[in-house]
Design a protein that fits this description.
heterodimer, A: mainly alpha, 67% helix, B: mainly alpha, Amino acid/polyamine transporter I, 0% strand
Chain lengths: 83, 454
Amino acid sequence: MRKHAPHSSDTIAGIREQDLQRHERFEDELIMHLERDQFVAETSRPVPRVALGARTAAGLWALRVFVVLVSLMVLYTFIQQLH
Amino acid sequence: MSTTEHAAVSPLLGAPPLTREDTARSFDRSRVHHARRHDKRWRLLWLLVGPGILAMLGENDGPSMIAYASDGAQYGLGFFVPFIPVLFAMAFVCQEMCMRVGAVTHRGYGELILQRYGKAWGWFGAGDLTLTNLVTLVAEFVSIRVGLAYFHLGSGVAVALGMTLVVFTLGGGRYWRWERIVLGMALFNGLFLLAAILVKPHVGAVASSFDFLPFPHGSFNTLLLLLASTIGATVTPWMIFFQQSASADKGMTPRDVKHGRYDTAAGAVLAAIFGVGALIAGAALLAHNGSGIQGFAGAGFPEALRHVAGGAAGTVFALGLVEAGAVAILTISASTAYAAGECVGASHSFNTSPRNAAVFYAANVGVALLAAMVILVPGAPLLSIALNANVLATVLLPVSLVFMVMLANDKGLMGAWANRRSTNVIGIAVIAFVGLCGAAYGIDSFLQTIHLVG
């Protein structure tokens, strides 16, 4: 049976250092495949808000109210059909 | 792959802190880069397909396939055979915008609306989504139950199957794993094409139906219901939330937009083919005075098909309903989870562990569980819910589409990737058509219910 030479503390430290460097190199290579604005740290920052024009806002509110009203009509019809 | 749960300082100079989500996504991106660098075209396509096919085949869900089959059983092939592909062409226009915005901004639909246009609009959108998703999820469990009833299995099995799939696919904490499992399941939507072949349709009749004739007969309200439910079977709010968020979660970039278009187009073509398959299978019941509708309410649509076209057709259709419901439960739950995470500002990615994205995972399982509980309630109006799910989605869709077009036109976000004029013209036409059909049906039905019109 082959006997292994005992590792000195310097050898173990050297292996750990190599592992760490390999791990860091691996992570560096991975990071390079992401665009900068893809990182979670970047996407967590909110995009700046835009001010809607008066006409656009009015149009959106009108559409929203209309859609809610029609949805209520559909729900009312649905409930009546159940009876 | 080594990953860290918490943010760690990247060894690269100036790079942002690295999270587990970043590491998982960059690993997926490294494969894309490798395929692109070595000009492996099919490998690149394989790596980049997913969100588009899932959105389109996810929308070929239980209520949609029943709606197509009911159209066939009541009106035959004319009008609907060409109408379904037209609707999926409309869906392609909307979904391509979602994919493009997701790939360019790396953000989901919910968070962009919330941040760009204010909290009120963001929460309105999330509210619409939650309502339609909950109703639709109930309909998906009904679909599984109808399919399993053919094999003499009850609602308890339907709930167990649906919930097991949700929990199983969430395991692993990787977007790639989730996407590939659901993609594999979604391809079984082709069972509806097999059902169409098994009913032995007259090929000449199918080919000659592309002239949109005969136009469906019946009352104005019936026609509007048909249009609204068929539109709701092809374009819905959850698809918008899902594809944009999934494209961002997958790590797509502007360089991948071309493949994103292939993905979305492939999904639209497959969904149209399988949808027409369900229509053709349902049309086998036409000669029996549309017994599919009554059959669905009673013994079940697959059972009605078995009597008319044989046991194999009934079995395949029943399995198709189980598959359609199961895949839709997974994609619709995911869209709810994305929206919940985005709106409360919490982590929202399949690449994050449940511990670090509690809201995302809780919403994913919670919304499915809530819908599952409804179908266990004795005497719940399941059939009515299933048939009205698509109509409600159609009514609420225009607002989501308007914001989608606004985001896709936002030069500050999209830059050179903003909509072209032609895309805007088609997009606005789609919104007008969907809005008109949904509103006309809602108003006409309401007026009839309160006896203001006959």
